[in-house]
Design goal:
The protein has about 375 residues and is an alpha/beta fold. The protein contains 13 helices and 11 strands. The structure holds nicotinamide-adenine-dinucleotide and zinc ion.
Length: about 375
Amino acid sequence: MNANPSEPAGVPAPVASHIVRVSLGERSYEIQIQAGLLADLGSRLLRIAKGRRLLVVTDRTIGPLFGPVLARSLQAAGFDGSLAELPPGEGAKSLDVAKFLYDRCFDAQLDRSSCLVALGGGVMGDLTGFVAATYMRGIDFVQVPTTLLSMVDASVGGKVAVDHPRAKNAIGAFHQPRAVFIDPLVLAKLPDRELKAGLAEVIKYGVLDDRTFFEFVESNVGKLLQRDAAALSSAIEKSCAIKARIVGEDEREREGGPRALLNLGHTFAHAIETCTNYQGYLHGEAVAIGMAMACELSVARKLLSRGDADRVRQLIELAGLPVKLKAGDPPADDLHAATFRDKKARGGKLRFVLATSIGTTKVFDDVPEEAARKIWDLPRD
Ligand SMILES: NC(=O)c1ccc[n+]([C@@H]2O[C@H](COP(=O)([O-])OP(=O)(O)OC[C@H]3O[C@@H](n4cnc5c(N)ncnc54)[C@H](O)[C@@H]3O)[C@@H](O)[C@H]2O)c1
Ligand SMILES: [Zn+2]
């Protein structure tokens, strides 16, 4: 029986839409999560767009997969849209590619009432946001994230950047999107390894803020890996809600503010990524190892119980993610030096986000160097 007589038989009932609000005064926005949302993006954009001109920025992997359905919905809503398709990969987060996009903005005659649409993973989101922050001193943009990592992390919070040859994300701004539109169905096409990398950040939210959510991920990790739509939607919604709340309290990561807590596992992860030249591990994989290491450091500092640390490690492993370095990875001394370089650049102190239980974390500035150094000597695979 079709409950809605206006709909032809056989059309599945729409899946409930979930909305998470990021509250930032006049820069507030919604994160809309709904299966199938992509086909309806045009009408959703109509509610927020100032003008009718827009440029969709995507990469050559994602463009062919989702570009046509997006283009149809934008056209049906009366938008005058252009498309820029870039090579996939971190290499697109460069000033050269940003310059290419400024040219495309002029070609498409974008003005201050126009909007950029970032369709893709965190690379497209960061790059498009950076161009939106700077073109004509800042125009609107919306995020349409297509990786799990960008749905739960990169697309929310307004950090936009390109890389400099000397440092990742070094040239950037805070520029909040006008909205984030998440269609979990696009994850059907995401490679397994990328899905798991996104799960690392999902697990991170449980560890840093919410034991009940951690337990939800524990109970549903199998479904999440099988891309069960309901489990994924719940995990995305909860992760976004945690990030949205923290960003709402601390938009610009002020000294001592809660946004730093989102870096759980990231001090170790950044050192791993730097020393392996961003080749050996995906960001989420490095975060997985970094979180396991941060838990070991917490146990060594008598902040966290052995039982909780083991539970975190087991969940990371269940998600198909690494918890240890590989035998052939760079030597411990190099990794430790990289941790230090990262910190020195920010004023000398080693700073770690450490869990005091599953669901509570704090920033610690007083971790002795020897304690941090020992973590790099943990057994390898
Ligand atoms: N701004 C922030 O707050 C923030 C937070 C975390 C990460 N980041 C940034 O995000 C970037 C990493 O983002 P990412 O992990 O999303 O990687 P990504 O953007 O490089 O995407 C990974 C790969 O998956 C492909 N892909 C994307 N969606 C797909 C889909 N649905 N189906 C099939 N293939 C798909 C892409 O073409 C790409 O090759 C880094 O540059 C990182 O610095 C930013
Ligand atoms: Zn991260």
